[in-house]
Amino acid sequence: MTRLADRLRAGAYQAYAYAYPHKTAYRDLPAPVDLAALWAGEDRDNLFAYLHVPFCTYRCGFCNLFALGRPADGLVEAYVAQLERQLAVVGDALGTHRVVRFAIGGGTPSYLAPAQLARVFDAAQRHLNVDVAHVPAGIEVSPETATRDRLAVCRDAGIDRVSMGVQSFVDAELASLVRPAQRDEVVRAIGDIRALRFPTLNLDLIYGIPGQSAASLVDSIGSALAFAPEELYLYPLYVRAKTGLGRLEERRGAATDTRGALYAVARDALLGAGYTQVSMRMFRAPHAPAQDGPAYCCQNDGMVGVGCGARSYTRTLHYSDHYGVARASVSQILERYVGAPATSFAQARYGYALDADEQRRRYVIQSLLTWPGLDEHAYRMRFGGTAPDDLPQLAELFELDLARRDGGVVALTPEGMAHADTIGPWLVSNAVQERMDAYAAA
Length: 442
Description:
alpha/beta; globular
């Protein structure tokens, strides 16, 4: 196991550990797994339902999500129809259950026409028994597709959180991201979001863009704060293989890494504006609604993903459809999805089985990388031991003053949180890392 100190010398930005194991560690399962039998052994009282819509108006240069820009109209309609069929099959497989969180992401779900969005919400309610109006429920949108009619369908369905990727308010920086300038569309979309009284608006910004300075980043933050978003996410730019920016970097070489300095400037600006930092990326405003929906714990409770590109999580198995980034591979996977018989959705065929060690690692990663941190009592109740005993490498966090223990909670220090994208990858198991490396090399 590589020491964290050695990792830190290699740089603070190594990978975003938003899910563990990462999807690039998934492989074809030895045999299909029956979903009804799998979920029968799970606690289904507090589930997160996630629907995936893998379409966008255009593909941003930095994007490595499973998404397709400018899809044919026929493909979009076929996808929605197949999503409805999959919802029916998955709902039957779950049996008696309760959904306490709901999200529809992508891609850009607002790419769907209003009538298609309405069909998706109706199918989710009928087949997953999800009452969108009475659980925390979010949707991801882009400025040009967040039209008043689409937003109205979402609000009528009960969506209470809209997340929009702005990335920058500087036209030259957007051009560097291979993304069109959209200030007028952003202003119009936010006006509609506010007029329809969505309780939570989240705006995403990116730092580390070629040509971006501390001053221009602060200006973009100021422009975002003028809209008083309840949440704001700061994403460091990662230039990944198979993306548009990745291909550009291969030709022109990597630029100087300014992300660490820009993160500090941006974090301080948001803290100075009264926002509370939740993770390396997430900041919440003082006026954000209280998070008082039904209980859900991402470390313990399951996720049901529906749609090509969605992941599902149980305690022992994470599964999904196949993963791709390049347009050809995404198109091929989507073609298989829309052409599959509905009965195929009753089984999992691609994923990662989590043994006891992987379950503990996932719990620690999911807990440590957000504040308030890792609750030692909750960990003991789940696993019967202590995290420092189960993962001795955690001791180095304390040695480097990147974490502290307070009142039974192990939490990253501010300096530790600034290095979350090093700490997360450092906690990855050798088995998962080997699979991820093999995927990257393929």
